[in-house]
Write a structure and sequence with these properties.
The chain has five helices and two strands, in the order αααααββ. By secondary structure, it is of the alpha+beta class. The protein has one domain (about 15-105, about 115-120). It has a two-stranded antiparallel sheet. A hairpin with a 7-residue loop joins strand 1 (about 100-110) and strand 2.
């Protein structure tokens, strides 16, 4: 059996990149900083891209799992409405910086933290 290394390049936005795109939704609390770090973790970005490529689902599915785990372990508090919007805007910056665009379509969820989330498509 061979061992094979698979690698990919991703763009990891920083807070300054995010705030340039969304100056009205700042990353200005410890809670938002923790959320930002979770979403922009390179492994999580890669997983979100794979989910979008393979299933056509919203990348928020990946982030919801990670955020739910952080809430359950006490790392962060349950999200309020503004923090849920923050997740969406950070996800947008992550996906767009990695060559994806918004489709204008939403994926609806029947349970979990989020009720709906943007679906992205790869730029050609």
């Amino acid at each position: 059996m061979k061992t094979v290394t698979v690698s990919s390049k991703i763009h990891q936005p920083e807070v300054v990149d995010y705030e340039e795109s969304y100056p009205r939704v700042l990353c200005n609390t410890q809670q938002k900083q923790s959320i930002f770090e979770t979403i922009t973790n390179p492994d999580n970005i890669n997983r979100a891209i794979i989910v979008s490529e393979e299933t056509g689902n919203s990348p928020v599915m990946v982030y919801e799992e990670k955020i739910t785990r952080a809430i359950n372990t006490g790392e962060i508090s349950p999200l309020n409405w503004h923090e849920k919007q923050f997740v969406g805007t950070v996800t947008s910056v992550v996906m767009e910086s990695n060559g994806w665009k918004k489709t204008g379509k939403k994926q609806r969820f029947s349970k979990g933290i989020f009720k709906s989330a943007e679906i992205y498509s790869k730029l050609k």
